[in-house]
Amino acid sequence: MGTTLEVCLIYNNKVYIGHIGDSRIYRIRSTFIRKLTKDHSYVEQLVTDGTITKEEAINHPKKNMLVKALGCTAYVEPDVMVKGFLNDDVILICSDGLTNMVKEQEIYDYVKEDINNATDKLVQRANEMGGYDNITVIVIQNN
User: Fold this and answer.
1) Which residue, 1, 23, 98, 110, is most buried by CB atoms nearer than 10 A?
2) Residues 6+ away with beta carbon under 8 Å from 51
């Protein structure tokens, strides 16, 4: 059994990210949302290889099979990256319990509509859509 790990260090208008698994980190900037991390899942590999489409991946039966996770081996190397974090940017860290239930555009809409209550509203929305997994959401705004 393994787990995911998302680490963010924010310093001097940059976000330093460490990532393992299929939880995700997004950056919301003005009018768009961008996924900064790449899922370490079997299905993501199929999409990357061109074997299936992104649309086919949404309901794939092996969607949650991880190819890299924390705790499965003695050593696992995270993806590490540095991204800009401008004034008014938002970092959203979430588990797949959110992204399996709520589409990216809807996540963006909830954050832009009411950032102060976005985490609660997103968890509630994921539960309304089925909520069959743990749902974690963290929102950080650069003011």
Assistant:
1) 98
2) none
DSSP-derived secondary structure letter, 57: H
Question: What CATH number did the domain enclosing 70 receive?
Answer: 3.60.40.10
| CA–CA dist 15, 12 (Å, integer) | 8
Q: Give residues with Cβ within 8 angstroms of 11, minimum separation 6.
A: none
List phi, psi (to 5°) of 26: -115, 155
Domain count for the chain, please give it: 1
Write the DSSP assignment of 73-100 as a string of letters: SS--PPEEEEEE--TT-EEEEE-HHHHT
Q: pLDDT tens digits, residue range 56-77? A: 998 899 988 999 999 988 899 9
